[in-house]
Amino acid sequence: MATRVAAAAMIAFALGCSSSAEGPHSGMSADAGDGSMGSPDGASSAASDAGTPPGTDQDAEGNGPPAGTAGNNCPPSWTTTPACGGGSYDAGVPDFGPNVIVFTPSMPMSTIQNQLDTIYAKMDADQFDDLGYALLFMPGQYSLDVQVGFYTHVIGLGESPDDVTITGAVRVMADWLGNDNATQNFWRTAENLAVVPTAAIDDGTDIWATAQGTALRRVHVRGSIALYDDGGWASGGFIADSKIDTQITSGSQQQYLTRNVDLTNWQGSNWNMVFVGDGQPPSGTWPHPPYTVVNATPVVREKPFLYVDSGGNYLVMVPALKTNATGSSWGADAPGSPVPPGSPLSIDRFYIAKPTVDTATTLNAALAAGKHLLLTPGGYSLDGPIEVTQPNTVVIGIGLPVLTPTNGTAALTVADVDGVTIAGLLIQAGAKSSPTLVEMGSPGSSADHSANPTALFDVNCRIGGYIAGTASVCFTINSNDVIDDDSWLWRADHGTGVGWTANMSNSGIVVNGDDVTAYGLFSEHHQSFQALWNGNGGSVYFYQSEMPYDPPNQGAWMESPSEDGYASYKVSDNVTTHLAFGLGVYSFFDNPVHAANAIETPTGSGIVMHHMMTYSSATGGINDIINGTGGPATAYSAN
């Protein structure tokens, strides 16, 4: 659950650091056409070892070699060729199933509005479910009020966000829980569209009052946006690769990450606001206001996105790797001439999965036949893991599909190969406990993937809440160079199957690989370390965590016989290099228990931790910020 708000004294713990953190050198993104940067079709040694030379196409049925697209000779483009992402035919409009709804600007706006209102009435308060909706908008102009409820994914199908322009609102309100409280507005996304707020709706400000497990991506707000609803509590949140023309106001948001967003004018602060690679980030001196500014995003690929070509054919754009990136990837494009951020895949390169039909067997057969996966909305019961074994495979969900293992296995495993993309999934623990729900690389993985890393986007984890379930760990990352972009790893504190001995879970994430990077890591309520980092060279840009509410007593929650509780963020003693910016750890214990530290790390010169804070309620608490220093209650570090 999002943070409970409680009064606590504020203590400044000054170590002396400005709000502009020592980040990577500021600069524009790398040239998307530079093959050395590992385009999404990038051929790797793993691809070659698998027997697929660069540029090799799959056969007409999708059978045969790896799902890697076409090799690193594919230039940035909006169109495919037989050797670069092309399919065997013009696929046209795919059968996405009943919960994917496609709107066109030629439809009467009243008809679209009625359908949107019907869906929203169903999803507004539908906190726990496994069936969502993907709402797809063909390029054009719309006049609509698009309210985004639980498990709702709003997608523009243009090459540029401005190709789909919605005049009115694309908004998330906080009415269902009462008191304009947005702290449980989980699991929803909007991407690749423009919104023009109008005075008739919320006085002309777009409202995006969300909590964890949400995202705005490739969104152009042609006006102002507020991240809270009418002064009510809010606990988010994540925006990436977007542009805000006028003003963005955080209001009551407790914490937030914006990455590669053209902000124009950010207003507001509360506990922990982190800005990575943004255009026009706010200025100030930590901890008043609690801003962390990293000038450029060191290494990232943007999330793949759906779009249609002039013939109405669907494609998936897979953006290229970029380094030292500042600002949105598209905001400087000339109107009407969007620059391709990578190279595309025809939709018929994808196996389109449906929850009423598909199992682990059918999904793995599709992967073995060289297909990528596009999972449509709904709940997928898996008697074994989805096994991604080929480099450059894309597994993408629309409408927040929910994957649940039923036999105590992982829901998803990825081999130690280059360039895999996993996006838009909610992974849920089953009744039979899993050692891990997602595994990236097998134990002992050692390959260098720095030129073409695997990446996760908007992949979230839930243990309990909707169904009773247990898992030791949400994510285990064994491969090197993995990028995790926005993940909420949640042991449920309310809902079905919730209790100290019910939805048991040790950690949200365990990182064993080297040089793993996380942007927007949210991990909450697990029973040991929320995040355990065993690999060297890790980098985290924004961390938000609540310790478990429910330890029954101190004796039941001890890291060692002499140390109370567990640190939320633990960097193992063997680690020599680690970097983190903007970490917030909170405690709201139901019983009078304590954690000795919020964060524990080695103390060598290679361990660099910038801008940490804690918040504790009146019951129990966190004794220190890091390694026995920082003080109790609410405290800020300044380094």
Structural notes for this entry:
With 639 residues, the chain is mainly beta. It has a domain of 154 residues. Helix content is 5%, strand content 37%. The strands form seven sheets. Strands 1, 22, 23, 24, 26, 27, 29, 31, 33, 35, 37, 41, 43 and 45 form a 14-stranded mixed beta sheet that branches. A hairpin with a 5-residue loop joins strand 18 and strand 19. The longest helix is centred in the N-terminal third of the chain and has 15 residues. The N terminus is likely disordered.
Strand content: 35-45%
Largest sheet: 14 strands, mixed
> DSSP helix count?
3
The end-to-end distance, rounded to whole angstroms, is 29 Å
Classification by helices and strands: mainly beta
Defining key terms:
639 residues, mainly beta, 14-stranded mixed beta sheet, 11-stranded parallel beta sheet, 3 helices, 45 strands, disordered N terminus
In short:
With about 650 residues, the chain is mainly beta.
Topology:
Blueprint: E1 10-12, H1 45-49, E2 100-103, H2 109-123, E3 133-137, E4 140-147, E5 152-156, E6 164-171, E7 188-197, E8 205-207, E9 214-221, E10 224-226, E11 238-244, E12 247-249, E13 255-262, E14 266-267, E15 272-276, E16 291-294, E17 297-300, E18 305-308, E19 314-319, E20 322-325, E21 342-346, E22 350-353, H3 360-368, E23 372-375, E24 379-382, E25 386-388, E26 394-397, E27 402-405, E28 412-414, E29 421-428, E30 438-440, E31 455-463, E32 473-477, E33 483-491, E34 507-511, E35 517-524, E36 531-533, E37 538-546, E38 558-560, E39 563-564, E40 569-571, E41 578-587, E42 594-600, E43 607-616, E44 621-626, E45 634-636
Parallel strand pairs: 1-45, 2-3, 3-5, 4-6, 5-7, 6-7, 7-9, 8-10, 9-11, 10-12, 11-13, 12-14, 13-15, 15-16, 22-23, 23-26, 24-27, 25-28, 26-29, 27-29, 28-30, 29-31, 30-32, 31-33, 32-34, 33-35, 34-36, 35-37, 36-40, 37-41, 40-42, 41-43, 42-44
Antiparallel strand pairs: 17-20, 18-19, 19-21, 38-39, 43-45
